[in-house]
């Protein structure tokens, strides 16, 4: 649970809304011992007409893709998963929140082979602010290159957003914080630039945006795709390219992106200033357009918003 937030009233579990305190699993659950779960991070933003979920269908499609890769039998269609998210937000009377869809092997079966372990689906939502902090958004984040690498090809699938994939992300984050950095940048198994511990990464040089290919072990981020499409709308050039570590020290701008982090600029990397050490104009322009779409302040030309119906309880507020 995020610092400063509290539990909400209801969690969606396998088709039913249950009380927050009742959404429990057993300590012998397969996921506890072997990390057998896939998940999503989604945000709902308050707009002038009520709450709206950003790119909900894309997130639910990726959840099904992740489940398929890991052979997690998911009985819910993309449409049903989308409706479950909307129902959960409405049941908790929220207009702005973070949503965590989770598909996990539970039960009480020990052993790596999970043939008979039950698969459960959850939708959890709560109020959660800026992941890397407001100061990082306004002033930029200080980051370091991590000593931990992204997984090599054919070790485990990085296209899946799986719980176990984030073990080395935890090490990266802890290492960065212990060394007084806000976040870490991970390299791939060959030593090329990949991404942050839980964010995709964009670099800017001479007005061109660069980002790592998925073959570098980066997640196929939905916010990453949003950045590419917004940059194109703004007439900018985006290049997906294998990048050596030293390129990090030569760029004019750098920023993380992700559902939790949204768009967070980077001011230093390994104590090298990025540009003039302040959020740059390209990162700022893309972030402003991204947030304007998400919060309904400008036209949703891409059809990214799914409205959440206003409940009677909200109307009476």
Question: Would you write up a description of this structure?
Answer:
- Strands 8, 9, 10, 11, 12, 13, 14, 15 and 16 form a nine-stranded mixed β-sheet that branches. Strands 1, 2, 3, 4, 5, 6, 7 and 17 form an eight-stranded antiparallel β-sheet that branches.
- The chain has helices spanning 30-34, 56-69, 78-91, 134-139, 167-178, 222-233, 281-294, 312-315; strands spanning 10-13, 16-19, 37-39, 42-47, 50-54, 97-105, 119-126, 141-149, 183-187, 193-196, 200-205, 208-211, 237-240, 253-258, 262-269, 272-273, 305-307.
- The longest helix is centred in the first third of the chain and has 14 residues, at 56-69.
- The chain is globular and about 50 Å long.
- Helices cover 26% and strands 28% of the residues.
- By secondary structure, the chain is an alpha+beta fold.
- Strand 1 (10-13) and strand 2 form a beta hairpin.
């Amino acid at each position: 649970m995020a610092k400063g937030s509290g539990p909400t009233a209801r969690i969606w579990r396998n088709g039913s809304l249950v009380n927050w305190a009742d959404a429990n699993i057993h300590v012998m659950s397969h996921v506890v011992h072997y990390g057998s779960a896939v998940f999503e991070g989604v945000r709902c933003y308050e707009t002038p007409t009520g709450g709206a979920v950003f790119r909900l269908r894309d997130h639910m499609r990726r959840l099904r893709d992740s489940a398929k890769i890991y052979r997690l039998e998911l009985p819910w269609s993309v449409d049903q998963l989308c409706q479950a998210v909307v129902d959960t937000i409405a049941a908790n009377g929220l207009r702005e929140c973070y949503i965590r869809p989770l598909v996990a092997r539970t039960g009480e079966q020990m052993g790596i082979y999970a043939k008979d372990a039950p698969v459960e689906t959850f939708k959890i939502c709560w109020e959660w602010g800026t992941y890397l902090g407001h100061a990082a958004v306004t002033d930029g984040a200080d980051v370091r290159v991590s000593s931990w690498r992204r997984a090599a090809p054919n070790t485990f699938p990085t296209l899946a957003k799986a719980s176990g994939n984030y073990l080395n992300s935890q090490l990266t984050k802890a290492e960065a914080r212990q060394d007084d950095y806000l976040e870490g940048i991970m390299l791939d198994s060959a030593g090329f630039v990949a991404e942050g511990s839980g964010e995709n990464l964009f670099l800017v040089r001479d007005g061109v945006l660069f980002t790592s290919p998925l073959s570098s072990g980066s997640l196929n981020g939905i916010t990453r795709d949003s950045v590419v499409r917004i940059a194109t709308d703004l007439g900018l050039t985006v290049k997906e390219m294998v990048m050596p570590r030293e390129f990090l020290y030569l760029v004019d701008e750098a920023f993380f992106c992700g559902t939790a982090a949204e768009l967070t600029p980077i001011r230093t990397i390994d104590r090298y200033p990025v540009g003039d050490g302040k959020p740059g104009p390209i990162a700022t322009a893309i972030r402003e357009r991204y947030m304007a779409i998400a919060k309904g302040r400008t036209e949703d030309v891409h059809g990214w918003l799914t409205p959440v119906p206003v409940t009677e309880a909200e109307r009476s507020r």
